[in-house]
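Bug #77: duplicate submission created two jobs. Keeping one. Sequence:
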Amino acid sequence: MKTLAFAWHYLWSRPLGAALNVLLLSLGLASITFLLLVGFQLSKAFERDLAGVDVVVGSKGSPMQLILSGVLHIDAPPGNVKLQAVQALAQHPLVANVIPISLGDNVEGFRIVGTSHDYVNLYNATLVQGRLWDAPMQVVLGAAVAAKLGVPLGGQMVGSHGLGAGGHAHGGSRYTVVGVLAPIGGALDRLVLTDTASVWHVHEDAGKPDHDEHEGKAEHDSDHQAERDADREVTMALVRYKTPLAAMSFPRYVNTSTGMQAAAPAVEVTRLLHMLGLGTDVLRAFAGVLLLTAGLSVFIALWSAVRERRGDLALLRMLGAPPRKIAALLLCEALWLGLLAAGLGLLLGQGFAAALGWFLQLDSTLLIGGMVWPPALAIVPALALGVSLGAALLPALGAYRVSVLELLQAR
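Kept job's structure:
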């Protein structure tokens, strides 16, 4: 303990040099912490929100856009597809379940999703208040939506056109809140869920002809309803297979035999991670350069300290301190550097991750959130101690080998 206390005082006897070494080492460790946090949270987000979804079927365009818009809800969809085409998929022998997804409106920036109860069951979500919708224009709020908007059960809200706040409000169509979901830590928390018919109702043509003025009204309305149903559209569908072997043939069937496209989450996530990997390689190299620079700086500082403190070292040897004690003093000084840099680097890395989430206007239910501690972060203090102690080995060895006579002569 005395050696540790002595090393602490020695470290801060040159405060500017010590602060510079801690800062350089901390920046490298903060970069590594940031990369580990982003990688961990991306993996958790994909694992959480893509669970149970074997393939996403939607309009032709970018398959990755289908995944990002229909499952993670962080992008705009490529377009709509006919409801009848989606319903036909449910009859395919390899398909176990088809969940329709209809997008287009929002409530104060939270997306309104027209779907079925199967979408709630897909994530094993439970209700903390109320019930699920049983008629059009009823909505169930995700946990984050309920916390932010504060609309009680039975309260009403108005949707706005578009997937982001600021669009034209559909003032003539009001939704009634009938339930609130428990938080699951996923995309579901920030969605407003309703029946698919609600989305159709809001966007129906207000200028459709009034058939009340015509004879044969029932027949007219029946024909009009049939025509309208044939024109119904949804944004996309989430499909679950009956067997994993369906992944071999079903996407090819959709892409070649229908006017839609099938996007496999596993394939698109691999592509996305590869694209992100190009950027993380640059950051990883930058972090490596910072760590190498910090290690050299620590080495130079400690080597210079041995030369400057030769008188103090001679006095310690004369007072009976063995060579290993002198070496341990330098190693403890490096240990303090590593511990300080590790703590600061972890905090800075968490701050960088939280800042990214704030800058991109993301929350902890999406991809980036601060103050999580995955097991992989254990590598950060290990790196800090490895770099600092490794840089101290030669100076400590030099101090260990110097004899008392040489130290006195130098004094």
